[in-house]
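Standup notes, structure subgroup. Blocker cleared on the pyridoxal-5'-phosphate input:
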Amino acid sequence: MSEKRAEHHAEPLDLSRWEGLDPATIAIVAGRGPEEAGLPINVPPVLTSVYKTGPGILYGRAGNPIWSAFEETVGALEGGTCLAFSAGMAAVSAVLNGLPKGAKVVYSADSYTGTRQQLERLADKGVLSPVAIDVTDAEATVAACEGAELLWLESPTNPMLSIPDIARLASAAHDHGATVVVDNTFATPLLQRPFELGADIVIHSASKFISGHSDLIMGLAVTRDEGWYDELLRQRTLGGAIPGPLETYLALRGLRTLPVRLEKAQANAIELARRLQEHPAIEKVIYPGLPSHPDHEIATRQMRGPGAMLCFVVVGGGDAADAACERVEVITHATSLGGIDTSMERRSRWEGENAPEGLIRMSVGCEAIEDLWTDLTKALS
Ligand SMILES: Cc1ncc(COP(=O)(O)O)c(C=O)c1O
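Run returned:
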């Protein structure tokens, strides 16, 4: 009898050829497809739902060459095997759905609102048993890991930019047999390599810095664990949360310039943080690159740079923060983050957000610093 094939068939990619290269190079040279004369240097988005029968992919929900190109590039940057999803939340949900019923999940109380709400929903339905914790309290987090199946970290956290000690917590979680997830959306693989710190799964909202142009929604899950790779692949193929080929093409195109974008955006963020600290309309600046940040020492040890996300609390609370957001002209008053454009918003305008009333979260982009500063100081006056 002839052999039967699984729909979700896919092999983890071989990433060994990228070992030893600088991430700034990997972002440009990985994911270029087969090295055959005459082929385009950019893998094209293949617009098809079905493939002619042969040894490769058969159906569009199971694979696309542009997914493989993007996944190879992110995988090489993170150092694991990557799967692209239709949204960051689809990648988050695939991990949570892969847990056994009733599993205890220890998670950062300051995680992205969507992740927290999804965990709370799954708790209400009796599917998971999540425990929220201040993950910057390492001792409490280690104690909470007793009996846990999963430790969910985000670093830096959204929105408070707290930095848990990933290596310490991952080691303790592993002692309890738990899987460790790190949402690396804010840091990107250029500033933080969670696998080197002990993570088992790395999550990204690729809608943010990875794609970098505020023009698409996508997610990523990266792992070194074969069991989890298989589980996540099944989740994606059977759950159907697949990315569109055009979005994936754009995401890979954006990823090619992540190193240069991030360098410029981070330099802008460092300068804005420094200047905002001296500004009379600002009560507090929260930025991992400032010595005043409570986790500055961990950030310096764990990250290759403090990143391009910056928070500040405006004197006068919520009304003053709203007024500043409404007055900016060069900076966009908008949610989300990680684009080449600088944007800001008062985080506690969102239901379920724990941030202080006057806290503005700013995603710093690549504009000229003096234009950003003039716009911001005008808005704060
Ligand atoms: C840290 C973090 N993780 C996950 C997500 C969810 O990603 P997406 O909006 O692509 O579904 C977000 C979205 O803002 C986020 O900030």
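Discussed briefly. The longest strand covers residues 103-108.
Next: hand off to the docking folks.
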